[in-house]
Amino acid sequence: MDLIIGAGISGLSYAAAAGGDCLVLEADDTMGGYCRTIKRDGFVWDYSGHFFHFQHPSLRDFVMQRISADEMLTVKKHTQILYGGRHIDFPFQMNIHQLEQQEFIDCLCDLFDTDPGAAAGTFKQMLYAKFGRSIAEKFLIPYNTKLYATDLDRLDVDAMGRFFPYADREQIVRNFRHPSGSSYNATFLYPREGCMRIVQSVASHVDPSRISLGERLLAVDPARHKATTNRRTIDYDRLVSTMPLPRLLDLCGMDYDHSVYTWNKVLVFNLGFDAKGPERTNCWLYVPEGRFVFYRVGFYDNIIGQDRMSLYVEIGFGKDEPVGDTGALLERTLADLRAAGIVDGQRLVACHQVVMDPAYVHITVGSEADKALQMKRLAEHGIYSIGRYGGWKYCSLEDNMHDAFELAQRLHQAR
After folding, report:
1. Cα 193 vs. chain centroid, distance in angstroms?
2. Are 242 and 387 in contact (CB under 8 A)?
3. How many CB atoms lie within 10 A of CB 366?
4. Which among 157, 70, 168, 162 is positioned nearest to 120, based on CA atoms?
5. φ, ψ dihedrals at 354, nearest 5°
6. Burial (Cβ within 10 Å: 0-12, 13-18, ≥19) of residue 298
7. pLDDT tens per residue, range 10-38
8. Half-sphere exposure of 108 toward its Cβ, with a 13 Å CA cutoff?
9. What whole-number distance in Å separates Cα of residue 284 and Cα of residue 291?
10. CA distance 355 to 240
């Protein structure tokens, strides 16, 4: 039997692909993990912004088997950066010509005063080497520092992988006259009723009797292939875990270097207002300036098409940093939304909050090296760790599904 830990998108995808003799354990009383939807007072919110790009047509077809066409919106992505009281198109480095003249000159001169081929040992060093001091210090460093809640010199050069919008000098200059608006995706899919609809579609391929909610994994005996939960002891042939990798290693009683695994946590405020706001085009805004407590604000009303402003607002914290008084933080958030011109007299009528811990893992040279070692040790005992947190990586929801399907195919073909 395959024992699957976690009924989020990764665990459910593996169960759907593997079929047959499997059991999915979920510590919470609801499926979905972070991919959940809250409906309150006419507003539709997720735990945070979750959008689907589907680079793999087979995965899109799989999901859409159980979702009607009118349930899914295809949204043209429009995103900007709130910088210096004005809106700059994303990505920043491709649109420096939209800055005030002197700032544009600074960015352009610094861009051509770099050696893009210079060796870089950290994420921060890479930003300076490829884009120069001005672009790095005006947006790339302050935004990503707020996002990751850590010194960017700790992160690996390739910490964001394909999701970082790289651009060379020629692409940047060409964009001055012929804006492409390109990044790693131009459109996305989003269910009218929130991302939980995707979870429900995937879960519909799994026998409900094979999903046990409210059952938490307490310990694993890798040598004996036994798992202990808050309800029972389970014998398994293989264990597929989607929980954070360090937590799995702890439950397996394995020795590892705890210090190399760090992450941030994110406080998300979902906010509903009584009327539309002045921002009517963006799907989300990036906010690099330190005077604002949040690093990103998303607009569900612009994505779904609603006549009242509906926001998700994200605030980053270090792994060991206390979130503190969320009531005070909400007041600060509302004040900053007004100062940023996002709220313009609208009245807050509904609110939801959640702390995502972990949110973004810190990918470092140390974590990558230790992860490879621990994954090999786990696999020797028939244990596999997948997903954003199980795989300890920066990835999309579709990536999680793809990895789960690929693992299921590989393991079951090997039988």
Report:
1. 19
2. yes
3. 16
4. 157
5. -150, 145
6. buried
7. 999 999 999 889 999 999 999 999 999 99
8. 18
9. 19
10. 25
Residue 399 tokens, joined: 């990536």
pTM of the model: 0.94
Round to whole Å and give the CA distance between 351 and 310.
10
Domains of the chain with CATH codes: 2-35+195-260+365-413 (3.50.50.60), 79-177 (1.10.3110), 264-356 (3.90.660.20)
**Nearest partner of 3 among 228, 252, 239, judged by Cα:** 239
- Return the amino acid letter for 112: F
Eight-class DSSP state of 402: H
* Pairing of the two strands 284-286 and 296-299: antiparallel
Residue 285 parent element (H or E): strand 284-286
What does the pLDDT read at residue 283?
97
C-alpha 240/C-alpha 385 separation (Å) is 6
Burial zone of 13 (CB within 10 Å; 0-12 exposed, 13-18 middle, 19+ buried) = buried
- Find out whether 182 and 172 touch, Cβ atoms under 8 Å: no
